[in-house]
Amino acid sequence: MTKSSTPRHSTPRLGDLERAVMNVLWEAHAPLSVRNVLDALAGELAYTTVMTVLDRLGGKEMVVRERDGRAFRYLPAQTREQATAEVLNAALDEAGGDRTSALVHFARSVGADEAAALRAALEEIEGRPPGHHPGS
Fold first, then answer.
1. Does domain 16-76 have CATH number 3.40.50.2300?
2. Where are the domains of the chain?
3. Whether residue 12 has pLDDT greater than 90
4. What is the DSSP string of the chain?
5. 88-104 pLDDT, tens per residue?
6. CB within 8 A of 99, min separation 6: which ones?
7. Exposure b/e, 75-91, CB count within 10 A at least 16 = b
């Protein structure tokens, strides 16, 4: 089995409510209080439910909390893109078999815009200017 040489910690699985809370935090431009998150969710949730979810997300190292007087404010521990990349890597790790084959299959399933973004990222990683193709 081919594994990536980059060490990663296990990416936690998020439930629907945890994902909703993370989306609120990722869209915010500053740390949020429990009340801010509750208001942004605009659902029929109890304050204590949101507080519990934020506490669980802290335990999963998905959020960081900062003291603000007697309360806390919460912010994401990583960007949405970083978290998504970790989920993709974990899926590749869990799929077994050859990671390269899975990546190739994934690359064949994306649209033209996504393929162009992948190509540009790979060129950047390889140290070539984007759009540079040998022999052209």
1. no
2. 16-76, 98-131
3. no
4. -B--SS--PPPPP--HHHHHHHHHHHH-SS-B-HHHHHHHHTSS--HHHHHHHHHHHHHTTSEEEEEETTEEEEEESS-HHHHHHHHHHHHHHHH-SBHHHHHHHHHHHS-HHHHHHHHHHHHHHTTPPTT--TT-
5. 888 888 877 788 888 88
6. 1, 2, 3, 4, 92, 93
7. ebbeeeeebeebeeebe
